[in-house]
Amino acid sequence: MDLTKTYPRSVHDKWLGIVQLGRALDKAKAKASGNLGEYSYDCPMDKGVFEFLGIDAEEFFGVVKNASSDAEIEAYAKKFIDKKSPDEIDQWNREWVTSNDSSEFFLNLRNQVAPARTDVTNWADLLDLDEKRPVPKRETAAV
User: Fold this and answer.
1) How far apart are the two ends of the chain, measured CA to CA in Å?
2) Domain boundaries, the chain
3) Fewer CB within 10 A of the terminal residue: the chain, N end or C end?
4) How far apart are the C-alpha atoms of 114 and 92, rounded to whole Å?
5) What is the C-alpha separation between 121 and 107, in angstroms, rounded?
């Protein structure tokens, strides 16, 4: 994975049924190959998914770096995912991609990326906009 030439997966994209996890995996692969670019592995959003699943970020990175196949990475992650109920996963996924942020940092970044998109109130959508992915307009803004 070369994040100097492309974007990681969207936060919204599920890997093994979990949002954000595929994005964290893409960044781990890019870090392992020295192509992380402007991205940060184990950023606060990665920390969130790792905390939810009980995964240690450095251990996950070691698995990614040393894996001979994607199946090895999947088997490692699945051990943690299998400890969660479908309801826990559904709730976490839903909340993760819809939680509003009204922090000054978020609002400043949104105003740089898409000043007219005051309907965008969460990180998942803001990152998609920043990475040139379509984000549907919301009826009303929460922020």
Assistant:
1) 35
2) 1-98, 100-143
3) C
4) 27
5) 8
